[in-house]
Amino acid sequence: MYSAGDVRVEQRADPTIIEPTDAIVRLVATCICGSDLWPYRGLEPADHQVMGHEYVGIIEEIGADVKNIKVGDFVVGSFVISDNTCEICRSGYQSKCVNAAFVSVAIGTQSDKARIPYADGTLVPTPGQPDEDLIPSLLAASDVLGTGWFAAVAAEAGPGKTVAVVGDGAVGLMAVLAAKQLGADRIIAMSRHPDRQQLALFYGATDIVVERGDEGVAKIKELTNGLGAHSVIEAVGTQESTMQAIRATRPGGHMGFVGVSHDVAIPGPELFFSEIHLLGGPAPVRRFLPDLIELIWDRKIDPGRVFDLTLPLEKAAAGYAAMDERRATKVLLRL
Amino acid sequence: MYSAGDVRVEQRADPTIIEPTDAIVRLVATCICGSDLWPYRGLEPADHQVMGHEYVGIIEEIGADVKNIKVGDFVVGSFVISDNTCEICRSGYQSKCVNAAFVSVAIGTQSDKARIPYADGTLVPTPGQPDEDLIPSLLAASDVLGTGWFAAVAAEAGPGKTVAVVGDGAVGLMAVLAAKQLGADRIIAMSRHPDRQQLALFYGATDIVVERGDEGVAKIKELTNGLGAHSVIEAVGTQESTMQAIRATRPGGHMGFVGVSHDVAIPGPELFFSEIHLLGGPAPVRRFLPDLIELIWDRKIDPGRVFDLTLPLEKAAAGYAAMDERRATKVLLRL
């Protein structure tokens, strides 16, 4: 991204092994994330920035210390580099690994090859070479599915629970899928876009609420005996969506927030008197990847449907424009 | 409290049973809370306001529907009225009961008698008439002990955990006691007052940190291998103490906040990237009262030491002054 709105695909030098824990991945597919739109729209700085942090591909080369992955393996990687051995990783928060680095900043996987540091800690091989139709779903696991899943876990979605999802982008839709898999009784998707409502229903939503802000909160309370939802997922990252999520959560309930927070300030007194659990942040996708790959491999979930436009990598600029103009929910880029 | 700084003890009409779920309690002891200092200092409005929300006493009269308490019982009550039967109460969040009311606002227990609504849901009888020396500890259970306990539970203090406590007032000290009882490995009290440091050590603190703000955070990190504490308790309620607590918590760790939040705004992006669990608010003391009474009755804990000044109720004004001027940590008022 040369600057806001100016995305170009250019030839760069091939990556090479630098550290003995590195691996070189030849990418098979990558994609454009909702978070890539922040710099595209000029809301975050962009100055000749490499882009992309979601990726699946085949291992082309490994460093001397890589033990769990071999050349030729098909792998899915997390959008945050992690060693998966430090105390924070072992507690399940690999996105805050003491050696964490964001793939988007450090590497940029909207490319045909990528050097992945801490390959053993970041990449997970699939059981074999995947069928072609599984590739979108495996790619989704790299971020949007893993992030939606973390949000649902953070919100403690599960049996007996009513879950409300604020945000109908790819992550919100994946959170619906996750809540369903985790056994939630009732899943309320907050969406006013007919196509996304349909996808939410496909993924397991039981109710659709079109209202937003305080009207949306009132509707959630109306559906929950005046109390609010047990579990609320925030998948946008604005002040309005954050407050909508806090206010839609019942006392003692859980809010999981994964929309990258921009210009948000949470009023302390309101949070105090709402008496809810909060957990959010960059999802520790690595924690969930083995289970998510298994669910996809066994065709128990179909997260790949979240991609509604596929383009060759060379057409990345057209993909950004389609997402920016909301003509696509999520764009897959093929190599 | 006629106005800020002007506390008077005056004769009022005796309370009477209004609802069949009410009880009249003849108070044996009450006390002054740190939160009573906010209006005393003019930081919250006060206009001929009844005061007090912590209380133990003997049941003098009960309404027709009160089943679990009888005349003559010695009882400890929560600082929030709760029916203890609604869905929110049953989930353990009695302080957010659908029929919740703050005793401080609705009743005011710095008095010799009080009408307690939802007596079955709010009051817990002791196993018998307590020995005189147990009264301060039972009174502490009504708020500061119950609040410190909730903070420690919210912060998930327990075996294998390092706990840091921000705030060395009565609640912070009770949180130290709770963390110890819950089995925490290491308990760091953040305090610069020698007498409170001593009490923190008595209650189970293993380390004292005198630094505050970002220096305090740096010290906590130094003591925790650079990661931050697993469990952090916030027991002040200011912007500085809130940020100190957030920053002292390791990724994936838990922060329990019980200092009544005043003029606090939590920056969304910082909270997002800190990736910590949060839970706080007015403590659901009623959830913990049966266990706390048992621990006190069996003399396994001695929370009553937190009272360092005892005065007759008539001298309430002197008690406020002593706490305001930090000559006392917590003042007990005897009837």
TrEMBL record, chains A, B:
Cofactor: Zn(2+)
Matches recorded under PROSITE patterns: ADH_ZINC (PS00059)
Domain of life: Bacteria
InterPro entries: ADH-like_C, ADH-like_N, ADH_Zn_CS, GroES-like_sf, NAD(P)-bd_dom_sf
Oxidoreductase listed as a keyword: yes
Segments forming domain Alcohol dehydrogenase-like C-terminal: 170-280
Record domain Alcohol dehydrogenase-like N-terminal: where: 20-120
Record has Zinc as a keyword: yes
Name of a matching Pfam family: ADH_zinc_N
Keywords: Metal-binding, Oxidoreductase, Zinc
MF annotations from Gene Ontology: oxidoreductase activity; zinc ion binding
Record family assignment: Belongs to the zinc-containing alcohol dehydrogenase family.
Name the record gives this protein: IMP dehydrogenase
Gene source species: Mycolicibacterium diernhoferi
Lineage of producing organism: Bacteria, Bacillati, Actinomycetota, Actinomycetes, Mycobacteriales
